[in-house]
Amino acid sequence: MQIGLEALAMDQKGYRRGSFQSSTSDEDMLEIAGASLDFSMAEDDPPLDREMGGFTSYNGGGMNGTSKMMDFLEEPLPGVGTYEDFNTIDWVREKSRDRDRHREITSRSKESTWALIHSVSDAFSGWLLMLFIGLLAGSLAGLIDISAHWMTDLKEGVCLAGFWFNHEHCCWKSNTTFTDRDKCPEWMSWSQLIIGHGEGAFAYILNYFMYVIWALLFSLLAVLLVKGFAPYACGSGIPEIKTILSGFIIRGYLGKWTLIIKTITLVLAVSSGLSLGKEGPLVHVACCCGNILCHLFTKYRKNEAKRREVLSAAAAAGVSVAFGAPIGGVLFSLEEVSYYFPLKTLWRSFFAALVAAFTLRSINPFGNSRLVLFYVEFHMPWHLLELVPFILLGIFGGLWGAFFIRSNIAWCRRRKTTKLGKYPVLEVFVVTAITAILAFPNEYTRMSTSELISELFNDCGILDSSKLCEYVNDFNSTKGDDLPDRAAGPGVYTAMWQLALALIMKVFITIFTFGMKVPSGLFIPSMAVGAIAGRLLGVAMEQLAFYHHDWIIFSGWCSQGADCITPGLYAMVGAAACLGGVTRMTVSLVVIMFELTGGLEYIVPLMAAAMTSKWVADAIGREGIYDAHIRLNGYPFLEAKEEFSHKTLAMDVMRPRRNDPPLTVITQDSMTVEDIETIINETTYSGYPVVVSRESQRLVGFVLRRDLIISIENARKKQDGIVSTSIIYFTDHSPPLPPSSPSMLKLRSILDLSPFTVTDQTPMEIVVDIFRKLGLRQCLVTHNGKLLGIITKKDVLKHIAQLANQDPDSILFN
């Protein structure tokens, strides 16, 4: 019966613009959500309570007289049942609301053909939305890839055939030989363009100067756009998306302006040569697409829980286009970012990822019919003994991951707590200048990080002109396409020194880059660090096998003249190990890596490295980089993977504590409008328990502060006779009052009649489990049926932080 009453109350509450007409268009209306489609450009400012009520006017005359007043709020009010910025949604209420909506559509579908068509379109709308998200995410990813590739090459020169061609496209029609394919006459470096020749010290200095100037121009433009138009467009976005998917609301984070600015500034930031990637921010871009497209469909626009299912699928589409890995994208969404992931969402994520990957493949941004720049194919199988160096790479990845997380969090905390945070433009300028000045002399840091990874993954062939492939050739022993292990030439040794210097630079500069006020992903820099370490180890193993093939470890499987060791494979395993050490991904990481390389037979080395790096990194610190940033920012994220093992009770955590003032409650039928407005003005709580009377403290239900504000303001405007001394009642029937008393206000329909309650003796491990699995905002504590206190999600998080010897005041939001 109680559930039925709650369903009825929710049905009456509705969610948004019922039969009310907005004073502005639907587009201008504030969607108080983990997202917004707010076209007023003020989407990043939290809304004020007093602004919430003034949206609407009735379609018709006002309500007057006591008889009408009894039915006040039977019609849904705009804003009632929605949430304020930086608050958590009530998953139970949202799911209940969706079930009621679905039940109503199903029952109506039997009444008429039109209702049946509506029912079918409602069921199909989810798939249609996934199609739109896939198309939009794939198109934006293609645009970002093409633009970033062109602007990265712009730092070094320009194409005379057409300035819009990048270096590779410019030289496609040239008649140069294969080895000189990068030196076509159509492509001119800045020194050739300005002083007429590209040789000599002055030409080198000029090219150096132009490289640094372009890098500074791109990064400054990026940070100024972020600062001026969309502060939420900075960073990778994955920590915030994890928090939003857990039910938190960051209004404007997935809005229109964030999408536009993030797309533009992501191209600028990647092109500037900073040590960052576009893969993490592409997840944010895809989620922005998902959130904006949700507004086309009522069932997603009006229900926060349903919207989060769409965002989970959008995150999968984002990874799908970032790595060309649709299955890896679905697993990434499931393993890393999603909080609630039902089977239906799994299928829809798969479809969205498929459409996004297909769209990107149709655009073909790299001109190689592949979805990513660093697709490679290896031909040689690996040997069991090679698991030892693979595991060593896993250990390196875990150590680097733990070191990076600690260093980066320490730097970001310093940025937040000192004056450094007040000068984001200066910080970006300095870091870009240092990066560009150090990067240019070394060809492996001068090229874009994606190109570097592509080069490191590459298996040397006969026609390769890279320094990494300058071996001493003995073509007598060549069999088909496979080249035997050969002695390293001078080019390889030069490349090794340059790569070692590049490794040191990447390790340290990435610490200061991630977290700046520009879009910055961590996947590509992490993979670059691992790929460099892996390639260095791979070449060392190759030379060891060449010169000492008679050693016992090589004698069984590596004879002279055979192709035993593939250095590119070591680079791939190292990349997976370092990315795993930083993010703590396992299953999704391995799948992404084998989808990247098309090498199913290398799954075991990848699994060994990913698992080792996770174990090593977990032994040093339990948190991945995204969880660490969530904790640093004080978001109320309740980690589902962590176990709560302490023996505390609900009464130890609930408020009020022993010396605190008593719990603020509302009585069901004896408080006036003025009394309730006083409570609202004097407290900042998100909601209030409703009790029979202050003496009995018997619980009736729970009412949200925001619903109260909107309902009272609307009643004052729309109803005659509502004054400060009017009684507010939450019961079915009005309390007996003298005839001379003012009109009463019935607010039963905004009352949650089935709030979640536990007794004061409930173990906290059960309470924590309830909060995790049901996604509660708050839980009321009773003793023998009487209300004792309240536990909010923030209280639970503070309690967990306290028990882990962390600062409980670091949890900033409800």
From TrEMBL:
InterPro entries linked to this entry: CBS_dom, CBS_dom_sf, Cl-channel_core, Cl_channel-5, ClC
Domain CBS, residue spans: 654-718, 744-810
Reaction(s) catalysed by this chain's protein: 2 chloride(in) + H(+)(out) = 2 chloride(out) + H(+)(in)
A Pfam cross-reference name: Voltage_CLC
Protein localization: Cell membrane; Endosome membrane; Golgi apparatus membrane; Membrane
Recorded topology in the membrane: Multi-pass membrane protein
Subunit structure: Interacts with NEDD4 and NEDD4L.
Function summary: Proton-coupled chloride transporter. Functions as antiport system and exchanges chloride ions against protons. Important for normal acidification of the endosome lumen. May play an important role in renal tubular function. The CLC channel family contains both chloride channels and proton-coupled anion transporters that exchange chloride or another anion for protons. The absence of conserved gating glutamate residues is typical for family members that function as channels.
PANTHER family: CHLORIDE CHANNEL PROTEIN, H(+)_CL(-) EXCHANGE TRANSPORTER 5
Descriptive protein name: Chloride channel protein
Protein source organism: Gallus gallus
